[in-house]
């Protein structure tokens, strides 16, 4: 990608903080996480725990490996998250009957009930962005496209 600037050669501009894609993503992520932290505090969830719950609300009784793949998390990161959610009484873990190596995660009644309390979170986040639905959809599609391209480079 070539960045045009009439005042300085492009090579000098490449190392400016405000020219970095990574910094734009990082700082936007920090701001977004602050919004989520405020909203999720009433649910007593952290943002990563909320993501796990979203996966489980979509599909209950799912393998740990499937949750990890869906969230792009390795088991070293996911296991402590799941243990905290289990301790909070939101999910249960058990071994698959067909393959003892597989751990299955299932929502408890409390985990299912929490879904109702979380219903307002997506709309509140959208309001906080002050973006239209079309803008949100476009940003999300562009980020997913970027993620796919970056993953293909690994």
UniProtKB/TrEMBL annotation:
SMART domains: HTH_MARR. SUPFAM superfamilies: Winged helix' DNA-binding domain. Its main location: cytoplasm. This is Transcriptional regulator, MarR family. GO terms for biological process: response to stress. Keywords: Cytoplasm, DNA-binding, Transcription, Transcription regulation. It is found in: Cytoplasm. It comes from Serratia proteamaculans (strain 568). The lineage of its organism: Bacteria, Pseudomonadati, Pseudomonadota, Gammaproteobacteria, Enterobacterales. PROSITE patterns: HTH_MARR_2. Residues 18-148 form the HTH marR-type domain. The keyword Transcription regulation applies. The keyword Transmembrane does not apply. GO terms for cellular component: cytoplasm. GO terms for molecular function: DNA binding; DNA-binding transcription factor activity.
């Amino acid at each position: 990608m070539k960045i045009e600037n009439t005042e300085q050669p492009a090579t000098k501009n490449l190392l400016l903080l405000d020219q970095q894609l990574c910094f734009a993503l990082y700082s936007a992520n920090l701001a977004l996480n602050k919004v989520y932290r405020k909203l999720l505090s009433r649910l007593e969830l952290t943002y990563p725990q909320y993501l796990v719950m979203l996966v489980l609300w979509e599909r209950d009784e799912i393998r740990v490996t499937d949750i990890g793949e869906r969230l792009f998390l390795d088991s070293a990161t996911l296991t402590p998250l799941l243990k905290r959610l289990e301790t909070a009484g939101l999910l249960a873990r058990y071994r698959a009957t067909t393959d003892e190596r597989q751990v299955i995660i299932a929502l408890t009644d409390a985990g299912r009930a929490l879904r109702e309390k979380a219903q307002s979170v997506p709309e509140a986040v959208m309001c906080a962005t002050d973006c239209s639905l079309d803008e949100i959809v476009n940003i999300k599609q562009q980020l997913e496209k970027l993620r796919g391209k970056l993953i293909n480079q690994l």
